[in-house]
Amino acid sequence: MNSSETPFWVRKPLAQLTPSEWESLCDGCAKCCLHRFEDEETREIQFTNVCCRYLDQSDCRCSDYPNRSRNVPECVTITLAVLEDPYWLPESCAYRLLAEGKPLPHWHPLVSGDPDSVVQSGNSVGGRVISELEADDLEYHIIDWIS
Questions:
Q1: What's phi and psi for 43, nearest 5 deg?
Q2: What is the C-alpha separation between 112 and 120, in angstroms, rounded?
Q3: How far apart (Å, rounded) are the C-alpha atoms in residues 106 and 59?
Q4: Distance between CA 12 and CA 17 in Å, rounded?
Q5: Is residue 90 in some structural domain?
Q6: Is residue 52 within 8 Å of residue 60, measured between CB atoms?
Q7: 36 located within any domain
Q8: Which Pfam families match (predicted)?
Q9: How do the pLDDT tens digits run along the chain, 147 residues long?
Q10: Residue 14 located in a structural domain
Q11: Alpha-carbon dihedral angle through residues 49, 54, 59, 64, given to the nearest 10 degrees
């Protein structure tokens, strides 16, 4: 495989990606849109099945992506600085995987060529979450199906 055939995410370091390449790394699983708990001592993350109110659950995308940080101040924009210690991101997150020097999974749309492969592989939160507007106490919503 010559360099023109090598996918950009293999060929280029994260710091050299164009904005469109950077955005295409998001597989649309929406796991990062879930509320979570962190043990401050162990840094263990526990995810809930409660998503941000702006998550469009039909397509697992933010319904107001350009304004997400203004709408939800705790919404973290994935940057190179964030990826210096991405422990809190889901283990299957493309940004985390690449930052850790790991390959993208076979179901990632950039690898499979199919935008539905995230859903087909069971890696999407679609159909498995509730909005924060519907949730009661978050500790009753802890899940163990996120990786």
A1: 65, 20
A2: 11
A3: 20
A4: 7
A5: yes
A6: no
A7: yes
A8: CxxCxxCC
A9: 556 689 999 999 999 999 999 999 999 999 999 999 999 999 999 999 999 999 999 999 999 999 999 999 999 899 999 999 999 999 999 999 999 999 999 999 999 999 999 999 999 999 999 999 998 899 999 999 987
A10: no
A11: -160
Nearest by Cα to 130 from 32, 27, 53, 31: 53
Do the Cβ atoms of 48 and 16 come closer than 8 Å?
Answer: no
Q: Residue 134: what are its φ and ψ, rounded to 5°?
A: -100, -10
Coil, strand or helix at 112: helix
Distances (CA, A) of 92 to 38, 40, 72, 123, 139: 18, 22, 23, 8, 23
Torsion of CA 112, 97, 23, 2, to 10 degrees: -60
- What is the total count of domains within the chain? 1
Residue 137: CA count within 13 A, CB half-sphere: 2
User: Residue 61 corresponds to which amino acid?
Assistant: R
Contact between 107 and 93 (Cβ < 8 Å): no
| Tokens, residue 108 | 């990632």
- Give the chain's end-to-end CA distance (angstroms, integer): 31
Domain of 74?
27-141
